[in-house]
Automatic annotation (TrEMBL):
The keyword Cytoplasm applies. It comes from Caviibacterium pharyngocola. Transmembrane segments: none annotated. One of its GO terms (cellular component) is cytoplasm. GO terms for molecular function: kinase activity. The lineage of its organism: Bacteria, Pseudomonadati, Pseudomonadota, Gammaproteobacteria, Pasteurellales. GO terms for biological process: phosphoenolpyruvate-dependent sugar phosphotransferase system. Keywords: Cytoplasm, Kinase, Phosphotransferase system, Transferase, Transport. It is found in: Cytoplasm. The keyword Transport applies. This is PTS mannitol transporter subunit IIA.
Length: 146
């Protein structure tokens, strides 16, 4: 199920990143390239972060940047960036090592996808396996069971 929304082309492994803004931009790249979001989608994430803080840092080591469908979401999809050294988003759950960008074209169709994400991340072992993965193929194998 998750591989349907998070294909290998949407997964990146990087050693480090300069700041949280760069992490969000990198996570958006595959979605922008495939026409799944508009550039303004990322701008809305930045604006919301600046207004209310890192609302999308959902758990230790995990950020799920997202915005509302009307803010430039064109499809239902995910992208993942694994940041080996982690980056601070200004959250109590810093440092973030997994940036999972979510986009959904409406307020309802992504519920099943989110359920699979929640199941995956409910197991700390899965989180560590993904962080320790050295290849996109390893991560795809983990995702294949969800």
């Amino acid at each position: 199920m998750l591989n349907q929304y998070l294909p290998p082309s949407h997964i990146q492994i990087i050693e480090q990143v300069a700041d949280w803004q760069s992490a969000v931009k990198i996570s958006a790249e595959p979605l922008l390239q495939e026409g799944l979001i508009e550039p303004r989608y990322v701008e809305h994430i930045f604006a919301a972060h600046n207004e209310i803080g890192p609302y999308y840092v959902i758990a230790p080591q995990i950020a799920m940047p997202h915005s509302r469908p009307e803010n430039g979401a064109l499809a239902q999809a995910l992208s993942l960036v694994v940041i080996k050294q982690g980056i601070d988003f200004g959250s109590e759950n810093d440092p973030v090592k997994l940036v999972l960008m979510l986009t959904a074209k409406d307020n309802h169709s992504h519920i099943e996808m989110l359920s699979a994400v929640a199941e995956l991340f409910s197991d700390e072992e899965n989180i560590e396996k993904i962080i320790q993965s050295s290849s996109v193929a390893e991560i795809s194998d983990i995702l294949a069971t969800y």
